[in-house]
Specification:
With 246 residues, the protein is α+β, with helices and mostly antiparallel strands. The protein has two domains: 6-122, PAS domain (Beta-Lactamase, 2-Layer Sandwich), CATH 3.30.450; 151-168 and 185-245, Homeodomain-like (Arc Repressor Mutant, subunit A). It is built from eleven helices and five strands; from the N terminus they run E-E-H-H-H-H-E-E-E-H-H-H-H-H-H-H. A five-stranded antiparallel beta sheet has the order 2-1-5-4-3. A hairpin with a 5-residue loop joins strand 4 and strand 5. The longest helix has 20 residues, at 129-148. The chain starts with 5 loop residues before the first strand and ends with a helix.
Length: 246
């Protein structure tokens, strides 16, 4: 599945201007509860490491992108390991105008280098106002696909989704490539494969053939299903079922 990545956009004084839906899913805070507040004051707590807090402060002051790991707290008081990347955003006059942070729950994500947005050195850098708009569009796409389960439609294509998001196919394709590191079709197929993994091991679908499950998950034919499933999971569907049973 496409990983949950909380996004926090602040002004240059580090007051929250916007967060995405993954932020709410991870932290429990709705956007209306966090606007105008400092991420640190909101999310840090008794076990937040003083050394990490100081490194974050110095990183923000330096106005260069940096990575960090810190214990944060959800709205319900539960602590979690937050792995984050923060980028400064400058205008054309090179004046600092915003910060944008990408954060994941460390307990749910292992190798962060597998997530393009969590790589400081990747081609995309959130160093301009244009970059902020790309991020917002990407997460609007992600939220739409997940909320409406669009991936279950085998006829889904780039143009259909671009129209839903009131953008054009060229720009949407560019944004998906920059921020996910994959093309649109692969991006959608990750959701289909995740759906298939659930159904393959569920008792509710044991009456279906593998191909029948593939059709329910948005795949058009058996060969594509087998090829894509193995490409994403490194297992064939049958091998995945056998590994799960063990």
């Amino acid at each position: 599945m496409v990983p949950r990545i909380a996004v926090i956009l602040t002004d240059n004084l580090r007051r929250i201007l916007w967060v995405n839906e993954d932020f709410t899913r991870i932290t429990g805070y709705d956007v209306d509860e966090v606007l105008g507040k400092s991420p640190g004051q909101l999310l840090q707590g008794p076990e937040s490491e003083p050394e990490a807090i100081e490194r974050i402060r110095l990183g923000l002051s330096s106005e260069i992108a940096f990575k960090e790991e810190i214990t944060n707290y959800r709205k319900n008081g539960e602590p979690y390991i937050c792995k984050l990347v923060i980028h400064p955003i400058h205008n054309h006059e090179r004046e600092l105008v915003n910060f944008i942070a990408f954060e994941v729950d460390g307990s749910e994500n292992g190798d962060l280098d597998m997530i393009p947005l969590m790589r400081i050195e990747q081609k995309y850098q959130s160093s301009s106002l244009k970059g902020v708009e790309e991020v917002k569009l990407y997460f609007r796409l992600k939220d739409l696909i997940e909320r409406e389960k669009l991936y279950l439609d085998a006829s889904l294509n780039l143009k259909m989704v671009a129209d839903m998001l009131n953008t054009n196919t060229k720009y949407l394709s560019q944004v998906v490539n920059h921020l996910s590191g994959r093309n649109f079709q692969y991006f959608v197929n990750t959701y289909r494969v995740e759906e298939a993994k659930t159904k393959l091991v569920s008792q509710d679908y044991q009456n279906l053939t593998l191909y029948g499950i593939a059709l329910q998950c948005g795949f058009k034919n058996k060969s594509t299903f087998y090829k894509v499933f193995k490409e994403i999971t490194s297992f064939t569907p049958k091998d995945y079922i056998n590994s799960y049973d063990k």
